[in-house]
Amino acid sequence: MGTDMVVLEHGSVQRNSHGCCNKGPGYATPLEAMTGPRESLIYVTCVYSGTGIEKPDYLATVDVDPNSSTYSKVIHRLPMPNVGDELHHSGWNSCSSCHGDPSANRRFLVLPSLISGRIYAVDTQKDPKAPSLHKVVEPEVIVQKTGLAYPHTAHCLASGDIMVSCLGDKDGNAEGNGFLLLDSEFNVKGRWEKPGHSPLFGYDFWYQPRHKTMISTSWGAPAAFRTGFNLQHVSDGLYGRHLFVYSWPDGELKQTLDLGSTGLIPLEIRFLHNPSKDTGFVGCALTSNMVRFFKNEDGSWSHEVAISVKPLKVQNWILPEMPGLITDFLISLDDRFLYFVNWLHGDVRQYNIEDPARPILTGQVWVGGLIQKGSPIVAEQEDGTTWQSEVPPVQGNHLKGGPQMIQLSLDGKRLYVTNSLFSAWDRQFYPEILEKGSHMLQIDVDNVKGGLKINPNFFVDFGTEPDGPSLAHEMRYPGGDCTSDIWI
């Protein structure tokens, strides 16, 4: 590889010993977080990379305070200093895992760039409405010290370090992937996993310290996915179907779970928020299954399909059957409800998971998709009749694309939705959003009995941005949320 590999002492990633106090960032428990203040701002990664517009990607600040005169408007844009980054997911320098450390501070939003390999640290504390760029970690430094590229998920650790999953090497080979460690000043420390313990493919990860476990998922080789989706690449073994179980915090690969034909392309992963729980879920995009993983009595881990979205038999599409394509999901902070999207079908779903082994569908709403009325694509039922989904306009706006990234309010009553996945895949499946821009919606949630309903008063149009239509992806609140905070 020709890199200067840094070997770490894995005992350095430790739970801090400051004890429990309320002076650190975040909240003492997930249930306490649910009583936090209502969100008034939300940060959204916005992409020009791959759209044909030669402008930098940027971080948008959106006003989500219904009492504000700029409600549902972009009130600030922070452009990155480079073109071609493809901002994607984000994380914090500190979260509730550091709640017991009075010296820790949730100040910097960490923005990995999936294509360029840069990592940006953005200061959200000086002016939360107008964040500013704090530091850039250049890809050459990351490659030189670790051999890693294509950074994706960032999580803060209780030690103060930041861990970032990387999906390949600089040439896009999956064999080069692993986990990057940055210190609290965003200096590259090295790899997290022990030498020889890298996963086959990289993507998302979540750790559960009380069970001394971290589990990661597998998208595919960057050389394959960055050019668009090719079904042949799945047969060629360029996409994943495994979960990788690591010992925490020492980075030893303990077990590889083969999800088989029911678990192709497992993407987002979440443990239940209660840190004592030993179960969680992973969304498998291509096979459109929610897979539950759980710990056995002997300490090993197993998995089973918990929810299955049947593919639709369709006419006038590239294939005779269309998967739902589960691309994002999350769990409410009280571990009662699970929400996921079907990016191709176009619906958002809510399930009661009080019994994680037996989820119950409690809400569903259509907010886009390839089979909505007006589309040339129709779904065919068993009796041969055809149907299309009813997707209402919002403030007179036709809902383009399909639901993709979601974020839930702390109290579990509002679900925010954007519709861009990744520029190359957007161009392939929803070219209209590259031409006209994406959007952001808000769905009202019944978190007592269950139910979802589009909020008609909220619509953010990224097609009218000053530098041209952009692609809106992941969302974060300044005070943390249920997809970035981990409790120890």
Notable features of this structure?
disordered N terminus; mainly beta; five-stranded antiparallel β-sheet; four-stranded antiparallel β-sheet; Methylamine Dehydrogenase, Chain H; globular; 488 residues
Describe this structure in words.
The protein is mainly β and 488 residues long. It has one domain: YVTN repeat-like/Quinoprotein amine dehydrogenase (Methylamine Dehydrogenase, Chain H), CATH 2.130.10.10. Helices cover 7% and strands 35% of the residues. It has 6 helices and 33 strands. The chain has helices at 30-33, 139-146, 222-225, 231-235, 423-429, 431-436, and strands at 41-47, 58-63, 74-79, 91-92, 108-112, 119-123, 132-137, 149-156, 162-168, 178-182, 188-191, 205-208, 213-216, 242-247, 253-258, 266-271, 279-284, 289-295, 301-308, 312-315, 321-322, 326-331, 337-342, 347-352, 360-366, 378-380, 386-387, 406-408, 414-418, 439-445, 452-454, 460-461, 471-476. The strands form 8 sheets. Strands 28, 29, 30, 31 and 32 form a 5-stranded antiparallel β-sheet that branches. It has a 4-stranded antiparallel β-sheet with strand order 3-2-1-33, with no helix packed on it. A 4-stranded antiparallel β-sheet has the order 4-5-6-7. It starts with 29 loop residues before the first helix and ends in a 12-residue tail after the last strand. Mean pLDDT is 94; it is low at 1-21. GO terms for molecular function: selenium binding. It comes from Tripterygium wilfordii (Thunder God vine). This is Selenium-binding protein 1-like.
